[in-house]
Amino acid sequence: MIIVLILLKQTNASDHPEQCPFGYELIVFRLEHLENRVSQLFEKLESIVAENQLATDERMENLSANVTRILDLLEEVERSGAIVNHQNRLDKSDETTAVENNNASTITTCRDAPSTGIFQLAIPGLSSSAPVPVLCGVTLFQGSWLVIQQRVDGAVDFNRNWTEYRTGFGPMAGFGEFWLGLELISQITAGGGYELLVELKSETGEYGWARYGRFAVDGEASKYQLGELGEYSGTMGDSLANSGGMKFTTVDSDNDNWSRNCAQHYMGGWWYNSCVFNNLNGLFTPKPNEYGIHWNGWTKAATYSRMMIRRK
Questions:
Q1: CA dist 219 to 104, 163, 183, 196, 310, Å?
Q2: Are strands 132-137 and 145-151 parallel, antiparallel or unpaired?
Q3: 115-150 pLDDT tens trace
Q4: Whole-structure pTM value
Q5: CB 168 within 8 A of CB 178
């Protein structure tokens, strides 16, 4: 009888959980434990996702950097190949042959020129002005360059006055020495968007180049002031930066920062600052221990010089 009563009491207790607090608390404890485990798993999952995202971002950054390096290397290889080919042509004197004269062909930029030669350039924005002859080069650095200065043998005297530097001098044809003229250079670059390429051959026969991402020259009222130059690249060093913002000086128009006239001393018009940092219009064969066609830190007496501009 006693055993039956005990069994009945246990059965009644299981039918009413509120009368069995220990079992209820056990269930709650297990649920809380499960909730904590789920929370920990979520935190761990979030940590793994964050770590993977960080690793992915780092891989993407590394990949982007590698692609940039590859593109830079490809560009450098392309430039080096162009330089080697061009230097070989200079060494073989291939470019000393007569330049083709295409006076019948009118262009608005040297990008329109089908070959290296002299073309009639119609300057944008100057519809009333007649086309002017210019020398276009289509080989080096993807071509389409307009030559504004060339020195090859010293046959032309570059120790000129203001008027001559303004209007230009020297023959373009036949791979001659010439200066295009400050007024034309100013008009051509007035609209902006031009870059500059300088080529030199040192007194030891080494070929070098310098390229600037921006090039412009103001008008005569500003003494043909050279605008600030763009980003530099090249093999000779950034010597021309010293001339950025400088006015043009000739033997009869002193606009430099020296107490005397740099053009009189170094015998050639240029955008002098304090004279000797650079000058591509100096004496072709300088006096002993003096400067000629000069690019600071690279050459004091270059035997070849060419300045070219191109619309980007």
A1: 29, 14, 7, 18, 19
A2: antiparallel
A3: 899 999 998 766 557 899 999 987 778 899 999 999
A4: 0.71
A5: yes
